[in-house]
């Protein structure tokens, strides 16, 4: 990244805090004769909305007697532009990544439609992003340009065959001979070719086809709600018009030197949409805890098939209460269940650092794990197996598993809970699947 500010605000991990001293920022922003604190305050004012998009809390704190900027990241990974307090312009990007150094981009592509990054058309990045946004921005441009081109009334010659009472130089004599041989009464009808200037020509029908694609994209969940709202009226009017227009499917629209300028623009956008490739650089975000959950489901779905079991994502266990408190739970929801006959393996995925901190004795880790452990045991209680099976899955450098057995002296049942650590690495997916395959067992 080119600018100095991009260096200081380059990458931060999720769920963490970072301090940037006033001295470093002063050197980066190259200001003189100004209060460090006032420039930091200006930075916060300019970047308040884009920081909030990634759930980042920013404030000024005193460290060693000097003001420092503190940024605290949230559950989101993603990228936003950073605006300079000196001129208000975007000078770099702030990127929030996973906590453990993994490349989320290469893993997200594996999950198909189960989870997708959310994009914002309000914020444009300075640098290229590993997350290429969907084509909806180009579709917005296409609709605006289409409406302008429609007002231009683009005429082209079209060949039409018209029945007339007099022959002409363009008469289809071969067709005439066959038709009159079959029916002599047709001798006074001639089919003549005519070249007419019309807006209803094949190239416009191809542009109508791309319009249909653009409308579908903007009505999908790929487009932000704000964009869908802005374009809703235009889309409604165009859909009515399309009912009466000719649509000609195509994979590419030929551009011509003779095309009017507005038509050249429209064709260029059309081909971008047809290729489904955009050069837009939009801010994006993703709930990383949800991503980790979907990734574990992706891995275990394949394991379930190999075991002859059924994989179930996020089953709901309804909680019925006659007078439900506002703070009460309405359902329990484990992340994944492997079901084979009457046997179940319950799985919960937690994007937390517990396996990395195996020897840490902090009370905070104990309290968080106690909650996770009680939660998985609650899910286990929903099945009737005397020997219950469950997995608590956390990130880690390598595949690792630790078995915990919980016995009940009252019911003589037990719960076998595996604490599992998995690497978030595309190259090690088969290793992780094999690890799961070894610890998951069914009697039949």
Verbal overview:
The chain has a 6-stranded mixed beta sheet with strand order 11-14-15-16-18-17, sandwiched between helices. A 5-stranded mixed beta sheet has the order 1-6-5-10-7. A 3-stranded antiparallel beta sheet has the order 2-4-3. It has helices at residues 4-8, 22-29, 36-53, 104-108, 136-152, 173-182, 202-218, 225-242, 261-275, 288-306, 363-380, 429-439; strands spanning 11-13, 17-21, 57-63, 66-72, 76-83, 90-97, 118-124, 156-164, 190-198, 282-287, 310-313, 317-318, 331-332, 336-340, 343-349, 387-395, 400-407, 414-422. The chain has 12 helices and 18 strands. The protein has 444 residues and is an alpha+beta fold. It has 3 domains: 4-97, no CATH class; 136-275, no CATH class; 287-439, Trna Endonuclease, Chain: A, domain 1 (3-Layer(aba) Sandwich), CATH 3.40.1350. 36% of the residues lie in helices and 26% in strands. Residues 1-7 have low confidence and may be disordered.
How would you describe this structure in keywords?
444 residues; alpha+beta; Trna Endonuclease, Chain: A, domain 1; six-stranded mixed β-sheet; five-stranded mixed β-sheet; 12 helices; 36% helix
């Amino acid at each position: 990244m080119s600018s100095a500010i991009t260096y200081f605000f380059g990458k931060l991990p999720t769920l963490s805090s970072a301090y940037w001293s006033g001295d470093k920022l002063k050197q980066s922003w190259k200001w003189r004769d100004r209060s460090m604190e006032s420039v930091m305050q200006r930075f916060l004012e300019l970047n308040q909305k884009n920081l909030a998009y990634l759930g980042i809390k920013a404030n000024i704190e005193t460290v060693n007697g000097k003001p420092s900027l503190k940024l605290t990241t949230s559950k989101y990974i993603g990228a936003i532009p950073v605006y300079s307090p000196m001129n208000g312009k975007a000078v770099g990007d702030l990127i929030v990544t996973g906590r453990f150094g993994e490349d989320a981009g290469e893993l997200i592509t594996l999950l198909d439609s189960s989870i997708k990054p959310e994009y914002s058309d309000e914020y444009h990045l300075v640098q290229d992003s590993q997350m290429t946004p969907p084509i909806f921005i180009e579709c917005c441009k296409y609709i605006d340009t289409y409406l302008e081109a429609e007002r231009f009334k683009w005429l082209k010659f079209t060949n039409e065959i018209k029945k007339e009472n007099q022959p002409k130089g363009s008469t289809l004599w071969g067709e005439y001979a066959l038709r009159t041989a079959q029916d002599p009464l047709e001798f006074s009808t001639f089919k003549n070719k005519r070249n007419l200037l019309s807006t209803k020509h094949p190239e416009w029908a191809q542009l109508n086809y791309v319009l249909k694609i653009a409308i579908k994209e903007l009505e999908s969940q790929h487009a932000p709600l704000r964009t869908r709202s802005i374009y809703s009226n235009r889309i409604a009017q165009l859909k009515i018009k399309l009912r009466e227009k000719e649509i000609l499917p195509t994979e590419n629209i030929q551009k011509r030197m003779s095309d009017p300028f507005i038509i050249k623009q429209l064709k260029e956008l059309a081909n971008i949409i047809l290729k489904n490739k955009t050069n837009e650089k939009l801010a994006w975000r993703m709930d990383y805890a949800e991503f980790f959950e979907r990734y574990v489901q992706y891995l275990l779905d394949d394991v379930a098939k190999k075991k002859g079991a059924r994989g179930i994502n996020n089953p709901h266990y309804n909680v019925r209460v006659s007078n439900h408190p506002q703070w009460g739970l309405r359902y329990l929801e484990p992340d994944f269940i492997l079901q084979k006959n009457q046997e179940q393996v319950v799985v919960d995925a937690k994007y937390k650092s517990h396996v990395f901190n195996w020897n840490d004795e902090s009370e905070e880790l104990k309290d968080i794990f106690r909650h996770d452990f009680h939660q998985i045991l609650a899910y286990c209680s929903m099945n009737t197996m005397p020997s219950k099976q469950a997995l608590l899955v956390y990130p880690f450098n390598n595949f690792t598993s630790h078995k915990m057995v919980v016995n009940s002296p009252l019911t003589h049942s037990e719960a076998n809970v595996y604490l599992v650590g998995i690497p978030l690495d595309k190259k090690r997916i088969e290793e992780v699947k094999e690890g799961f395959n070894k610890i998951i067992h069914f009697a039949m």
